[in-house]
Amino acid sequence: MTGEAMPAGTTSGTPQVLLGHHLKQLKLPTMLREYAKVARECAHDGVDHASYLLRLVELELIDRERRTVERRIRAARFPAVKSFDTFDFTAIASLNKMLVLELARCEYILRRENVIALGNSGTGKTHVALALGLAACQKGFSVVFTTAASLVNQLMEARDERRLLKLQRDLQAAKLLIVDELGYVPLSPTGAELLFETFSQRYERGSTIVTSNLPFEDWTSVLGSERLTGALLDRLTHHVSILAMNGDSYRLKQSAGRRRAAPRAEQNRASDDIIDQETGEILTP
Ligand code: ADP
Ligand code: MG
Fold it and tell me: Does the beta carbon of 2 lie inside 6 Å of ligand 1?
């Protein structure tokens, strides 16, 4: 588009005000922000009107997709945003990397299948669950992240306040529900019953990811009843990928590594420095 060929309105005052108003009303904030700049570029490049409009529309689409993903990530309530980019698969030999990367494609969510990550503390179960959750948000699925203890608290509270059905409906609506840390806190009979109901309601309707430090045979110690545990596992494991994540704690390995590198720091250390008990790092500036 040349300078002369530009719509007369884009350079004069009133049409710009109206255009601004209309673009706002149509909820096209990127077009509003970019149209003048892109018009100048298109004039410079000799691009025609249709291509100018195409550039603007593409910018709006890209931005809209980014905003939607950000909204999904906020709605998921992740305690931290982690991805597979920062996950070191060589640190956990028991984990099937190919399976995890396949899961990151999110096709299991379309098939409404589940994922269970089992292993001792610090082996990256939460990291993997967060990264799968992030991948799901990026692929357009709604996600809810919670811990088993928090979920059960929310369910009990909702029941006491007579809004259990609404919470259950909200939980069912998520394409992916991530329940982290099943096993650290034993549940009350009511809590276990409510958790069972949640899994039961999602059965073959939506995907669930569960992480636990306990092997299946010990789940009864958390859920209380053998019958309930059996029924819950039956539903959860009908269509499931199991991630075996037993190994050395990544946290401990890292802090041990830092401690080995510490002697130099030790020499430079003043007697009143405060030392992080876990990592051996000097905390005082
Ligand atoms: P778990 O949930 O199994 O107890 P986490 O996922 O909380 O373990 O991992 C503990 C910490 O170590 C987290 O900060 C996590 O990001 C990190 N971590 C664990 N495993 C890895 C790994 N293989 N690569 C990179 N970081 C890891
Ligand atoms: Mg964890």
Answer: no
How do residues 16-30 score in pLDDT, each as one tens digit? Answer: 999 999 999 999 999
| 24: Cα separation from own chain's centroid | 30
Nearest CA, atom 4, ligand 1 = 122
Instruction: Confirm or reject: Cβ of 213 under 6 Å from ligand 1.
Output: no
Nearest CA to ligand 1 atom 18: 124
- Give the residue from 243, 219, 250, 218 showing the smallest Cα distance to 118: 243
Q: Are 242 and 116 in contact (CB under 8 A)?
A: yes
Q: According to the model, what pLDDT value does residue 283 have? A: 44
For residue 93, give both structure tokens: 């030999």
What number of other Cβ atoms are within 10 A of residue 231's Cβ? 15
Atom of ligand 1 nearest to the CA of 254: 12
Return the exposure string of 135-168: e unless at least 16 CB atoms fall within 10 Å of the residue's CB, then b. Answer: bbbbbebbbbbbbbbebbebbbebeeeeebeebb
Identify the nearest ligand to the CA of 248 by its number.
Answer: 1
Count helices and strands in the chain by DSSP H and E runs: 13, 5
Q: Quick one: what percent of the chain has pLDDT higher than 70? A: 87
279 has pLDDT over 80:
no
Q: Give 86 Cα–ligand 1 centroid separation in angstroms.
A: 10
Atom number, ligand 1, closest to the C-alpha of residue 91: 23
61-74 confidence digits (pLDDT tens)? 999 999 999 999 99
Lowest mean per-residue pLDDT among 9-13, 29-33, 224-228: 9-13
Please classify residue 99 by burial: count the beta carbons closer than 10 Å to its beta carbon, then call 0-12 exposed, 13-18 middle and 19+ buried: middle
3-state DSSP assignment of residue 256: helix
Is 83 near ligand 1, meaning CB less than 6 Å away?
no
pTM of the model: 0.82
